[in-house]
Write a structure and sequence with these properties.
Elements lengths: L10 E5 L4 E8 L2 E10 L5 H6 L6 E5 L9 E2 L12 E4 L11 E3 L1 H7 L3 E4 L3 H11 L2 E7 L7 H10 L18 E3 L19 E6 L4 H9 L3 E6 L4 H6 L4 E4 L6 H17 L4 E4 L1 H9 L4 E17 L5 E12 L8 E7 L5 E6 L4 E4 L14 H14 L1
Parallel strand pairs: 3-4, 4-6, 6-8, 11-12, 11-13, 13-14, 14-19
Antiparallel strand pairs: 1-2, 1-9, 2-8, 3-9, 5-7, 10-12, 15-16, 15-17, 17-18, 18-19
Bound molecules: glutamine (GLN).
The site of glutamine has 11 residues, from strand 16.
Subunit structure: Composed of two chains; the small (or glutamine) chain promotes the hydrolysis of glutamine to ammonia, which is used by the large (or ammonia) chain to synthesize carbamoyl phosphate. Tetramer of heterodimers (alpha,beta)4.
Enzyme class: ligase
Catalytic activity: hydrogencarbonate + L-glutamine + 2 ATP + H2O = carbamoyl phosphate + L-glutamate + 2 ADP + phosphate + 2 H(+); L-glutamine + H2O = L-glutamate + NH4(+)
């Protein structure tokens, strides 16, 4: 068979603006609707698909060859993948990697995710960049029976991400302790987090590599549900509190979490937030958040630490941001994106409280920003002394 021979499509992707892409489907048959985003990372698709912050979203990878290393039993950022779909350029091949436990197609199917391949991902990315966030409906039918008009209608009718709280679907429901450090070649995930200061992490959809990075700095980590009150957190006698990443609109989640975060700030304990945790900390301090045109999703975004003048290459995944308008007195902007100047980090001038919009735990991404976990532990150490 000639490599360029056209096969009849088994999948379609309809955008809210009416654009339709036809390709080959894999994974779970059916119709999957969500907000379409593009991610520029070259590696780490399994970590991306299992990052709970992608709940309610379909991810287009701008890197053309995705899926070639299959799926493995280790690269999970949460037990269940949260993303609804995946869009890739090249046909997904059989896996070629010593860690692979199954082909990506079977892994996607087992987790109820659909993918479409063989589509022009550069064109999709240009549409998202020019028109901003788009909802999309992805249909996969192995027989190719897809009603395109109905699919377009599904995409057009899907509600915007603004005002949507997706945290209850991904947060843990019970408290647990974390005892795993970052992955080591030949060892996997070593045991960690048995001693040291006690950190309580609020789980709004926490990535495992954040917990591993915290444990690796030499602290004990207890994870509590997103609905935990400040009183419940303080009863665990933490030396520091961590606010996690997570999906959806921070202003919607803020309805229950922000007042609790405000009380935790007032307790005087060291506080560190990442991504959604950063946005909600901003809200708790009196700032506002807003939807970005198409957000930041990738593993190569330059950010400047204004406190040291250093530039770090960061991992990013967000569609909302702390707004420039109405920044309260006492809040200092510590980091900015060198792509668009948006706020990437804040701190309180008079308290051990800070947060970043990006992902120092990477997974996937560069390790430039790991120093932030040390910065947090230094604050915890000082507060204890
Ligand atoms: N990674 C995250 O925590 C994302 C935060 C938020 N859901 C956003 O899209 O901006």
């Amino acid at each position: 068979m000639h490599a360029l021979e056209r096969r009849s499509p088994t999948a379609a992707l309809a955008l809210q603006d009416g654009t339709v892409f036809l390709g080959q489907g894999l994974g779970a048959p059916g119709i999957h609707v969500g907000e379409l985003v593009f991610n520029t990372a070259i590696t780490g698709y399994q970590e991306i698909l299992t990052d709970p912050s992608y709940a309610g979203q379909i991810v287009t990878f701008t890197f053309p060859h995705v899926g070639n290393v299959g799926a493995n039993l280790e690269d999970f950022e949460a037990a269940t993948p949260a993303a609804r779909g995946m869009v890739v350029r090249a046909t997904v091949t059989e896996p070629s990697n010593w860690r692979a436990s199954q082909p990506l197609a079977r892994w996607l199917e087992a987790h109820g995710i659909a993918a479409i391949c063989g589509v022009d991902t550069r064109r999709i990315t240009r549409i998202l960049r020019e028109k901003g966030a788009q909802n999309a409906a992805l249909a996969f039918d192995p027989q190719g029976a897809i009603d395109i008009e109905a699919l377009k209608a599904r995409a057009a009718a899907h509600p915007s991400m603004v005002g949507v709280d997706l945290v209850p679907g991904v947060s843990c429901t019970q408290r647990y302790d974390w005892h795993e450090g970052p992955w080591l070649h030949g060892e996997g995930y070593p045991r960690a987090g048995d001693s040291g200061p006690h950190i309580v992490a609020l789980d709004y959809g926490i990535k495992r590599n954040i917990l591993r990075s915290l444990a690796a700095t030499g602290c004990r980590v207890t994870v509590v549900p997103a609905t935990a009150t400040a009183e419940e957190v303080l009863a665990l006698q933490p030396d520091g509190v961590f606010l996690s990443n997570g999906p959806g609109d921070p202003a919607a989640t803020g309805a229950y979490a922000v007042p609790q975060i405000r009380k935790l700030v007032d307790s005087g304990l060291p506080l560190f937030g990442i991504c959604l945790g950063h946005q909600m900390l901003g809200l708790a301090l009196g700032a506002t958040t807003e939807k970005m045109p198409f957000g930041h999703h990738g593993a190569n975004h330059p950010v400047k630490d204004l406190t040291t003048g250093k530039v770090e290459i960061t991992s990013q995944n967000h569609g909302f941001a702390v707004s420039e308008a109405d920044l309260p007195e006492g809040l200092e902007v510590t980091h900015r994106s060198l792509f668009d100047g948006t706020i990437q980090g804040i701190r309180l001038k008079d308290r051990p409280v800070f947060s970043v919009q990006y992902h120092p735990e990477a997974s996937p991404g560069p390790a430039d920003s790991h120093y932030l976990f040390e910065r947090f532990m230094n604050l915890v150490g000082k507060a204890k002394a």
